[in-house]
Amino acid sequence: MSIKYHNGQFHLQTKRVSYIFSVYRGLYLTHLYWGARLEHGVDLTYLPEEFIFSRANAFHVPLDSENRVFLSDLKLEFSVVGGGDYRVPAFHARYGDGSTVSEFAYGGYQIYRGKKKLRGLPATYAENAAEAQTLEVTLRDALTGLKAVLCYSVFEEYDVITRNIRYENAGAGEIALLSAQSACVDFYGKEYNLLHLRGDWARERYPEVLSVGRGIVTIDSKRGMSGHAHNPFIALTAKNADENSGEVYGFSLVYSGNFSMSAEGDSCGGTRVTAGLNPFGFDWPLAPGDVFQTPEVVMVHSGEGIGGMSRVYHRMYRERLCRGKYRDAPRPMVINNWEGTGFDFDEKKLLDIAKVGAEIGLELFVLDDGWFGARGGDTCSLGDWHVNSAKLPNGLRGVADAVNGMGMKFGLWFEPEMVSPDSLLYRAHPDWCVFAEGRKRTENRYQLVLDLSREEVCEYIIGAVSEVLRSANIEYVKWDCNRNLTETADQTQPHKYMLGLYRVLETLAERFPNVLFEGCGGGGGRFDPGMLYYMPQTWTSDNTNPIARLKIQHGTSVVYPPITMAAHIGSIDTGRDCRNAFMDVCARVAMAGNFGFEMDLTRLSAAERRQAAEIAARYKHLRQTVQFGDFYRLESPFDGGAAWEFVSADGKQAVLFTYQTQTALNGESRRVFLKGLSPSASYRCNGKVYSGAALARAGIGIALEAYEYAGEVMVFEKIESEFEKN
Ligand code: DGJ
User: For residue 183, which of 76, 73, 285 has the smallest C-alpha distance?
Assistant: First the structure.
């Protein structure tokens, strides 16, 4: 049993982690511990009363008549406005009389096997009831009848605990939710850093470490989408934690819209983390009988630094967030025409590119933007999902059949959430976009966003996309989204938009189980766990420059598994053999993810085609390890050089990618220490035999070249000993 209740204390236990809290004075849920596993039976209920200080009880609220315990010192699992807790609240509401004060008290719990689906929202899942256990603790506000149900699911084998809160209006009055967070965790101690992933278009998800100190550090999005600037992820890290060691506490929100995650260092020596929907501009009516479900936060503790945390997220998201036919299947190697042709193509051009792709050994041809309506550039036709027969006289079926005839799958780009003002759809339904009455409709990339909070708009999208998918043998969809919300009609619209989008995606994923969906947000602007639930891979960034990509993929891998990162060799200055070295580094970066090409392959010289074919064959040999193995960041591209290692799930193959990011004429030597190998085994690489222990402890030297794009792919194959075979 991974969840135990004893004497007012809840103990959630995974293979390596314990999370413990208790009921305090029948009112509060107090956080006691989150860290390395403790045995069941340990009693930590003494902790809240350990902190006996002399506090000014005019400014700190005492919880007993002897002024021994103060609310400010209490570590809470749920926090509200009122009662004297001035830290960031997990919950804030306005009641019928205008008051925003709440007063919740403990109201019981239940524990059950498995994990329920979250209504209308993406979430991690258990494949059978034995895989997870769930605890639901109910808190009640007696005056209004509002219930907050705190849900904790424990994935023992995965070392993961998830949280969400369900708000149920069991009273008789209207309630407006102003802040409905998914989780609140109060840490003992104040010496924490906050790790998050910052960015912008073409430089998504760079890791950044901020000191929490005695302020509030908030990472958020108010864009209606998770966005390029901030990712719905933070980790609180001990000051001495690094890639390989130290305590790290990750919070990853399974949501793709407006979010907020904050850490607050308080004046009494604690640190509070809250995570959930962004309270900014949030005002959600909850009528009697209504239920509001918050998104899920996936929480990971690692005693093995940031790398340890990443590997837990990778496995969890690969196996228990992503779904469908492609979850466990090697992902096809892509050739996408976007960087090669832009909007300027016809059927012949596409098939010429596809033909070279097939010769090289690629497996999926993707037709990107520009195949529909009158689209010859980005100024028109979004919403008109009918093939442009001037460009493609034989329709999509003509292209798909020809591509299939070459032995490749055929895939297609859509941007279904958008409408161009210059489109048939907009002319027919000018009120179907997101807009605020009387305000200008701000255009971005000449487009507006369809209002997915409306049922009929969602139905239109489902119908239009389904019709196209049925019109030809389309086995892959790239689902793009090239702008954010600007003017919203009211404060419920952004969340309703997300619920609408999730419904559309769920319907399409169910209706087309053989289609591989890939998310995209103008590059990597919506690379989040919510999207991965429906689409098991995402276009990582529009920036395919390999040195820039190293940083983007490195940062993305802090949370997201490499199999989810679409990584293509982008358009390079093809046709000149002197660029071979450049193709080589592009390949090494792309091969460390979900691999493909994104260029006009017809422009490759004969030598480059041979090189491209060798690269594709090499990736095929490594694909299982890269896509399903354990990932180790040995060196960071932010520190000059980069080295990444993958170890296959069966431990039989390890792949080391090294990259030189700066010129190193007369440079300093580099040595890397491999991880995840068996110390007693031997490994063969490039004709040499190495001991696992030596690779881990003595390491290997990385060849230094003058050229900044230099590097290697080293494949270590385990030599099975007689002993191991038996
Ligand atoms: C943005 C995407 O990130 C690109 O890959 C490409 O699909 C363009 N949109 C097409 O408009």
Answer: 76
- Helix, strand, or coil (residue 553): helix
Same domain (yes/no): 310, 393:
no
pLDDT digits (tens, 9 = 90+) for 199-211: 999 999 999 999 9
pLDDT of residue 580: 59
pLDDT at 367 over 50: yes
- Average the pLDDT over 476-482 and give the result: 98
Coil vs helix vs strand at 30: strand
Spatial neighbors of 470 by CB under 8 A, at least 6 apart, are: none
Domain boundary among 582, 597, 628: 628
Is 542 one of the annotated active-site residues of the chain? Answer: yes
Q: Dihedral sign for Cα 421, 425, 427, 432, please.
A: negative
If asked whether residues 558 and 672 sit together in one domain, one would say no
Residues with CB under 6 A from ligand 1: 338, 368-369, 413, 480, 482, 520, 522-523, 539, 542
Give the residue numbers spanning the domain of 216: 3-320
Given a cut of 80, is residue 256 above it in pLDDT? yes
Considering the domain architecture, whether residues 425 and 279 belong to the same structural domain is answered as no
**How much distance in Å is there from the Cα of 528 to the middle of ligand 1?**
17
Q: Residues 431, 357: one domain?
A: yes
At 58, is the pLDDT very low, low, confident or very high (cuts 50, 70, 90)?
Answer: confident
The pLDDT confidence band at residue 53, using thresholds 50, 70 and 90, is confident
Residue to mutate (ligand 1; options 228, 375, 539; most atoms within 8 A of CB):
539
Same domain (yes/no): 524, 653: no
- DSSP, res 433: B
The pTM score is: 0.97
**Residues 272 and 360 placed together within one structural domain of the fold:** no
**Catalytic residue at 480?**
yes
Residues 546 and 441 in one domain: yes
Residue 58 token pair: 């005019």
pLDDT at 669: 85
Nearest CA to ligand 1 atom 11: 369
Which of 73, 141, 159, 480 is labelled catalytic? 480
